[in-house]
């Protein structure tokens, strides 16, 4: 079994940034968090093992996303209480 991160990286839209002349002030990696926790590598391994025990095909999981919410978060806030929803979007399938 290979080690997998606890989030799925979402491709950043560099094309759009160039198109509108936007320069990011710092490196940013948009992503979808599947697990947000301050845990040890050992705990991460146990979470991964539990997920595979529930469904051994979990690494091939595929599902449609109909809504997407964007949150502003303070990475230092481990309580998550400072998280604030910026906006929520309905996603429509393009044929």
Automatic annotation (TrEMBL):
Q: Name one GO biological process term.
A: cyclic nucleotide metabolic process
The record ties this protein, via InterPro entries, to: Cyclic-nucl_3Pdiesterase (IPR012386), Cyclic_Pdiesterase (IPR009097)
List GO molecular-function terms, semicolon-separated: 2',3'-cyclic-nucleotide 3'-phosphodiesterase activity
State the protein's name: Cyclic phosphodiesterase-like protein
Transmembrane regions: none
Query: What are the leading ranks of the lineage?
Result: Eukaryota, Viridiplantae, Streptophyta, Embryophyta, Tracheophyta
